[in-house]
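User: Structure tokens for this complex, please. No commentary.
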Amino acid sequence: MLLYNSAVSGNCYKVRLLLAQLGVGYETMDVSVVDRSNRAELLGELNPGLRVPTLVLDDGRPLAESNAILWYFGDGTSYLSDDPYERAQTLQWMFFEQYSHEPFIAVVRFWLRYAGTPELFADQIPAKTKGGYAALDGLERGLLGREFLVGGRYSIADISLYAYTHVAHEGDFDLAPYPMIRAWIDRVASQPLHVTIDA
Amino acid sequence: MLLYNSAVSGNCYKVRLLLAQLGVGYETMDVSVVDRSNRAELLGELNPGLRVPTLVLDDGRPLAESNAILWYFGDGTSYLSDDPYERAQTLQWMFFEQYSHEPFIAVVRFWLRYAGTPELFADQIPAKTKGGYAALDGLERGLLGREFLVGGRYSIADISLYAYTHVAHEGDFDLAPYPMIRAWIDRVASQPLHVTIDA
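Assistant:
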């Protein structure tokens, strides 16, 4: 199995974290998240979105979108509930992550720490930062009275939201006002077979 | 069952379309997509994302995010495959829709036709329009040689992508250069029990 990967991408980290916890082996090919000029050549046949992570399964079939990959490998394991409502809640959180969370928190982090030209994005950062805090507000509300996001146990919903939340400080987000989130980050990081984003 | 709904939202239309095709009844409560000042009061207990559609099931449990709702009702019906790989492909397209398609095509449509103040967004429209065409390019590539997005038959993946693609012209997107998309739009609209967005 081959993972088109970026070491700094939280979306790729989600896949690496679940596969580590499942004990599934794979090879990686590193793809730049800064110079995207070769994306169509590299990924055009594999992923209409031309994004990483893109995975090529052992039988050659491609699969893309980090949360779809989490679902494919998580289904049938302890990392995804069998209950229809909890499964829908898991997807609810993962769609929240891709629509309301990642486009703000991941993007500001990328601009400030990885793009190499933060000054080019200075005028866009306030609006994206505001959106990121709205996402953190939503996550904090969702964690109120809960140890994990769905069904009282660690699942692919937690992996999905953890990926960029735990590095939000790299986008200058301050998690001090979010006690539920901070305690949950510690719980996720203490799960068996956890690997860090820079492992 | 109660659907917090907006008549003009493509995300809400996805849910209305699938429920119509499944013959599932529900009531609606209309929520403004322009004046969002009462969102926390209205949806705070139901949906951390404070967005429509939000659905309250017959037993009182809430469910949000359009594509998560499609999955919940589609699973076990002819609108969602039983095959693990095709199910993952279905999710891949739905995550593509929420990350790479809706934030561009739906947003430009909203600004131009529904927000009431298109001039406020004039400077942001070129970048969003470019992103929308990139999404249409991805969808066109994905439909090449295919009648429907996944597994050769109409599914919730098609419902998800159809919702905003078929009204992309309201965001001044020109579908003339996309023959695969135009033929697919006609196929989706001719499915049994189809309802239009303004039904």
